[in-house]
Amino acid sequence: MSPITRGFRGRRNMLAGAENRVPPGQYMTDGFPVLSAGPTPHTPLDQWTFSIRQDGGELKSWSWEEIQALPAENVTVDIHCVTRWSKLDTEWRGVSMDTLLGAVEHDDGYILAFCDGGYTTNLPVADVTGGQAWVAYEYDGGPLDPEHGGPARLLVPHLYFWKSAKWVRGVELLDHDEPGFWETYGYHMYGDPWKEQRYSGD
Amino acid sequence: MEGTAVQRRLIWQVATVAAVTRETPSVRTIELSVPDWPGHRAGQHLDVRLTAEDGYTAERSYSIASAPGEPVSITVERLKDGEVSPYLTEELRVGDQLELRGPVGGYFVWEATDPGPLLLIAGGSGIVPLRAILRQRRRSGSDVPVRLLYSSRTLPDVIYRDELDSYRDDISASYTLTRTQPPDWTGYAGRVNSALLAEVAWPAHKEPLTFVCGPTSFVETVAEGLVHLGYQPGRVKTERFGASGGR
Predict the structure, then answer these.
(1) What are the boundaries of each domain within chain A?
(2) What's the pLDDT tens digit per position in A144-192?
(3) pLDDT band at A110 (very low <50, low <70, confident <90, very high)
(4) How many angstroms separate the CA atoms of B232 and B235, rounded?
(5) CB-CB neighbors (< 8 A) of B226 in chain A
(6) For an interface test with B, which of A1, A8, A183 has the most B Cβ atoms less than 10 Å from its Cβ?
């Protein structure tokens, strides 16, 4: 039972109808805060690729132009950052991970996404297939800004947003779950915002 | 990137306000008495949870302002339209209780054994985790050379002014005031840009370890400027607070 914090009332700025869309411990924001651990990388598009790797080898790789030529989807989703902001109805365009992973044969259960700048994050394959994840290259009708992960980032909106890796360059297929960058520093291996899986042990 | 696995479960615990200190008109430091604090490292943060009488709760993260071994304290800036920060900076008083858990984060962390000269760059309340680093450096007896660049709007907005002055003979501190400067001001004026970075930052060949904390646009400018100066991106650690409105 939490003790009452004397004199605290709070603002309850929830929009009517949004009560069931903001997970516990989160607040709504209209801004788009940025969180990253280091400088923003700037990889020229003619050097950019998205690769699927396994056992140290490359199974498949797309250039920027090849990715753009794949069927794209427009998605409107709510996103939830572990630092407690949630943003509703964000609009993205990108390629479904179903399309990308469907291009290779594998029976692995996990991926480790890797990125420019050295960032990584781990996800079950079951959470990035079935229409749940994209490699997104447009936000709000325009190219994705570098500070928000451009030219392309992973978009996995049903998990905390650190799983939606910025500056993504590919995924490594793994037969086991391996912690990525923030997961190594004590953040949750899975990160379900509705269960408040912020930190290891939550 | 070196990893320190923190697999201990973080449990909410009740903290009691032990002291409050006014730092600037909009900033206050809150010292907390936390019976079972597991200890922290310089640069980490913690989560705070406030509960209203009707059970409504609000949670926020704050950088820890104190060094490892010192009582846990946070320094909070009142944000316009904020939900939690106006309460913490205006209403909360000694003896009040709130919940917290932590410490959180293991990347934006400095250890006295880390190699290289230190470059600390803060915008506004981004000075808070850097103050923990400076305190830890002093407590640990480290003699690693430090350069500090601190950007504030005006002189009265400079947080920890007296404390930072006390390092005068020990570290090289540069200040810039972006909005107004007093008539006798001898520091820099205007926003941090590449020219200022080139002037005050360590030369890249000294392989400095850099911590940058501030608003998003500030951190973007600084981190990018340092990379252009030849800094290794992997040794430029950043922490940003965005235009999130709700803090």
Answers:
(1) 50-195
(2) 999 999 999 999 999 999 999 999 999 999 999 999 999 999 999 999 9
(3) very high
(4) 5
(5) 39
(6) A8
Distance to chain B for A114, nearest Cα, Å: 13
How do beta strands A49-54 and A57-63 pair? antiparallel
| Closest by Cα among B67, B61, B107, B105 to B236 | B107
Answer whether A28 sits within 8 Å of B246, measured CB to CB. yes
Residue among A6, A165, A67 nearest B94 (CA)? A6
Is residue B175 scored above 70 in pLDDT? Answer: yes
DSSP state of A3: P
Fold for domain B13-104? Elongation Factor Tu (Ef-tu); domain 3 (2.40.30)
Name the one residue in this structure whose structure tokens are 């913490």.
Answer: B88
Question: CA A182 to CA A37: how far, in whole Å?
Answer: 10
Report residue B162: phi and psi, to 5°: -65, -40
B155-170 pLDDT, tens digit each:
999 999 999 999 999 9
Three-state DSSP state, A59: strand
Check whether domain B118-241 has CATH 3.90.870.10, yes or no: no
A27/B246 touch (CB, cutoff 8 Å), yes or no: yes
CA distance A65 to chain B (A): 27
Each domain of chain B, given as residue ranges in start order, spans 13-104, 118-241
pLDDT in tens, B73-90: 999 999 888 889 999 999
Cβ distance of A39 and B236 shorter than 8 Å: yes
Is-contact B225 B193, C-beta < 8 A? yes
| CATH class of the domain comprising A50-195 | alpha beta
> Complex ipTM, two decimals?
0.90
Which residues make beta-bridge pairs with B77?
B27
Predicted TM-score of the model (pTM): 0.93
Q: Where are the beta strands (DSSP E) in chain A?
A: 27-28, 49-54, 57-63, 73-80, 85-96, 110-115, 120-124, 134-139, 142-143, 153-155, 168-174
Q: Is A14 on the interface with B (CB under 8 A)?
A: no
Which of A19, A32, A34 is best to mutate for the B interface (most B CBs within 10 A)? A34
In chain B, what percentage of residues exceed pLDDT 70? 94
Mutate which: B12, B98, B244, B247, vs A, most A CBs within 10 A: B244
In the prediction, which pLDDT does B242 show? 56
| Cβ contact B193:B222 at 8 Å | no
Distance between CA atoms of residues B172 and B190, nearest Å: 19
